[in-house]
């Protein structure tokens, strides 16, 4: 069984790590470290169950309302929040054939980031967040913030940033091939999404808990 410490060590370079483990135990370990659980949507509990749904049956303003059962765009969970979560923990009690997609932009941009950082760091996006919409950049000192379903490019630099972040290479697939599998994602380092829902995923249920590493007031 993986521990939170082992997941943190394994994810330092890749931005994610997984294995068989206990979601309840990992939440306890996170709390002992002083991590704060974050509800991604207002009014939701901190632990939610993600299920594939058709676009016409999805919650309004959710990513599924845009993509339905097709592939989700790579994104940052909680991009619409003033401070996106530092970590996202996913758990599946069952084997599931639909993989989670993971992409670390720094791997693709490491040789050219100098010329592209202006777009990522200074392009202005309007972030739709209900009645509290705000402006933000795709890359800030905390890491990446990107979700094309809630962020609208407002200038040439942000349009360039959108193009960069939607032309991902070196995308990795994480397979839910064992029951009781957990996946820890460094949410500001790695963008993630869901592949198109495959046959056999009708009952897919992925539990998710997001965390701030330090309490955010």
TrEMBL record:
It comes from the Bacteria. This is TauD/TfdA-like domain-containing protein. Keywords: Oxidoreductase. InterPro entries: TauD-like_sf.
